[in-house]
Write a structure and sequence with these properties.
Largest sheet: 3 strands, antiparallel
Number of helices: 2
Number of strands: 6
Structural class: alpha+beta
Radius of gyration: 14 Å
Helix content: 10-25%
Strand content: 25-35%
Distance between the termini: 20 Å
Shape: globular
């Protein structure tokens, strides 16, 4: 749904891969955001405080939530690309 609030992680915070690191809220529910990789938050998208809907409108450009300095670059090898993720979402096993 349309997002109405984003709780950003603090710059300097460190998270392990899979750790809860932010929250997004729609009019119906709040959802945790999980860090895809281990590392330190080096920047948070403060513009989302006034315009959280940007995530829905432009997720791949202006709607980013935070940037991470990787602790273990090899973790990138474990992530899915866009096509694999779409296939995963369409499968019955997710």
């Amino acid at each position: 749904g349309d997002l109405v609030f984003v709780e950003l992680p603090e710059v300097g915070a460190e998270f392990g891969a899979g750790a809860e690191c932010a929250v997004v809220e729609s009019v119906k529910a709040a959802s945790d955001v999980y860090s895809p990789l281990t590392g330190e938050v080096i920047e948070a998208n403060e513009t989302l405080a006034d315009a959280p809907e940007t995530i829905n409108q432009d997720a791949y450009e202006e709607g980013w939530i935070f940037r991470v300095r990787l602790a273990h670059p090899s973790e990138l090898d474990e992530l899915m690309d866009a096509d694999s993720y779409a296939e995963h979402c369409e499968s019955e096993d997710h």
